[in-house]
Amino acid sequence: DAGVIQSPRHEVTEMGQEVTLRCKPISGHDYLFWYRQTMMRGLELLIYFNNNVPIDDSGMPEDRFSAKMPNASFSTLKIQPSEPRDSAVYFCASSRTGRTEKLFFGSGTQLSVL
Amino acid sequence: AQSVTQLDSQVPVFEEAPVELRCNYSSSVSVYLFWYVQYPNQGLQLLLKYLSGSTLVKGINGFEAEFNKSQTSFHLRKPSVHISDTAEYFCAVSDQAGSTLGRLYFGRGTQLTVWP
Question: Which residue of B has its CA nearest to A95?
Fold first, then answer.
């Protein structure tokens, strides 16, 4: 099992540009989560999906952020336009049941917006 | 919503010494409790979890945690640490029931640094 795969590992972009982060969850996992980690706010849940359907997007900062899960093996998190305050590590995680089962985290995408 | 407080942001300790990382939570419902570890430039990995039953939970790498319902705490302990335990540790909770299925609330993390 390859685990949760995120791409790219690092992304450097300029303010105002569109950024797309990608995630492939573990096969058979029904839940997919997007987290953001910053020094100031720690780990924040942005959005999560169950069976490809967004369940809770209350953590999405603003309309500049959007997430999709077109199928069970792929999800994207898009920021348009990006701002310097979006600089953070973005983690994708997946789990089988979402409540008691552990989350499997990807290695994260380090985003730097200049 | 739940909240998780990790009382120490940094814990320095010498190798082979015991360590305790503290975690308190607040919740109006019953919860499940977790400890995750994050090594540099990696995602989080599960150390251990409490779902029900015995309040003392053993995890990987010699770590254990004790659930104390009256004190709403879930402190992580290890009797003798190694340099390889240097990492950031996160306490997390999730609701046992309700509409927040699948949602984990994380603490801010505790950086454990083990010195030789």
Answer: B102
